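Ticket #4471: structure output looks truncated?

Reporter: J.K.
Steps to reproduce: submitted the chain below (285 residues) through the standard prediction queue, then opened the result file.
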Amino acid sequence: MTKVIYNNTPKRFSLRLINPYFIITDLFKYRELISSMTIRNFRSLYQASYLGVAWQVLLPLIMLSIFYFVFGVIMGGRFTNLGDESRLDFALALFVGLGIFNFVSINLGTAPSIIMSNQAYVKTLLFPLEVLSITNVLTTFLSLVINIILTLSVFFATKGMIHLSSIYVVFYLLCIFLISLGLSWWLSATAVFFRDIVAIVPPLTIILMFLCPIFYPASMVPQKIKWIVDGNPIAVIIENARGCMLYGTWPSLSSIVFLSIFSLSFAIMGYCFFMRSKDTFADFI
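Returned output as attached by the reporter:
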């Protein structure tokens, strides 16, 4: 078994902290630790249940069935003005939006307690604390990937084809992963110094949910306030991922450039803030 060497030596600000290449190489040293912790966390979600990891497929299927019945059959909701939109189409559109947002909201909710719930790593071990956020986000990311695969499978089973534009969902998954990772680094470090962040995050998450086109299409937003949705990277990801998977809509070059720059920059800034702060964690815990 390869021995993992932990290094928690203070890092002074340098270009190394904001250079994507050096960030990746620094984190790559802990790849075995990250993979083992992620697998352990993922398995522990349903470790005591009889069906185990199978719940990762059954639960989304149950939720999709509920969306179909409540929002499609009872409420008769629609995402487009196309006459051929079925109730299942609406349920899938809602399922995609909620799946992506739930991934973000779960990480928002758990991020403030990451360091506080692992105080032993801070005080007694030379442990790379930055990997805690990575393993936490990766664990929930696996569930999101399963949801996306399930959505495409149901779409293929009912339509007999998959839009070629669905290939872009890989890009949107990468972007939402980087944004969530940056948020996790930001919030986990901030919560050490500002404990009230734990109480602030839940209401902000609810506000963010209604600012994203989850229960409604972005086209319904009045033009005067449409900038709120257009400037919200999470909303852009939800709308574009839904479009490329379900409606065969190809993303615009401007949205690709915007999301690429924002998600990468946000993750780098979160990492830089965390690495600059972690040397003082022990003094506040």
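Triage note (M.O.): checked the attachment and the full token line is present. The chain has a mean pLDDT of 84.
Status: closed, working as intended.
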